[in-house]
Amino acid sequence: MYAELRDTAGELAGILWREHTVYRERGGGVVIRGEHVRRWISLAPTGGKDRALLRAGRILDGGTTAPARTEVVVDLTAGTAELAAICRRLLADVAAMDEPAPAPDRGGKAGKREKPGRKARAPRPGRRPRKERHTSAGSWFVMLCVVAVLGAWLYSIFGGRGY
Fold first, then answer.
1. Which pLDDT score, from 0 to 100, does residue 122 have?
2. What is the rounded distance in angstroms from the CA atom of residue 49 to the CA atom of residue 55?
3. SS3 letters across the chain
4. Counting CB atoms within 10 angstroms of each CB, which of 37, 63, 106, 151 has the fewest?
5. Quick check: 71 and 54 in contact, CB under 8 A?
6. b (16+ CB within 10 A) / e for 121-157
7. Strand pairing partners for 23?
8. Cα(93)–Cα(65) distance, rounded to whole angstroms?
């Protein structure tokens, strides 16, 4: 089965990408890596005759592979063009899922450096931008309540005895 997967993967790799690497994975399947597009495709045996599990994912910074984003069982007796169309669809799904999530707002002072290629977040309408960090009135109230409770507790222990 490995020889059939290897041959099919070699043909698919030539159709999908000019620059590619084909290698065997631990489970007996074959991986096609397209470093220039930061994507990978895997063909793994499913136990059925002439069937394979086709998975697609992305390549992370540093060259490691992320877990598969999409997968489908394919019939290896289908033509190479049909398998390539399925691969392209899976790769398109991976690219669609690869939209970067917005970075969490970690606070900080105005004028902080932004990552290249990213725009600064626009301030919300109706709010003035913060110039510097400060302790809000609510925080002062909570601290005052904690001190008052601590003082009442200490007074109840030591206050009535005249020490």
1. 64
2. 18
3. CHHHHHHHHHHHHHHHCCCCEEEECCCCCEEEEECCCCEEEEEEECCCCCEEEEEEEEECCCCCECCCCEEEEEECCCCHHHHHHHHHHHHHHHHHHCCCCCCCCCCCCCCCCCCCCCCCCCCCCCCCCCCCCCCCHHHHHHHHHHHHHHHHHHHHHHHCCCC
4. 106
5. yes
6. eeeeeeeeeeeeeeeeeeeeeeeeeeeeeeeeeeeee
7. 31
8. 16
Per-residue pLDDT 10s for the chain (163 aa) are 677 778 888 888 888 877 788 878 887 888 888 878 888 888 888 877 788 888 888 888 877 777 777 888 888 888 888 888 888 888 888 888 766 655 555 555 555 555 555 566 666 676 666 666 677 888 899 999 999 999 999 999 887 665 5
- The Cα 8–Cα 143 span in angstroms is 69
Q: How far apart (Å, rounded) are the C-alpha atoms in residues 28 and 47?
A: 11
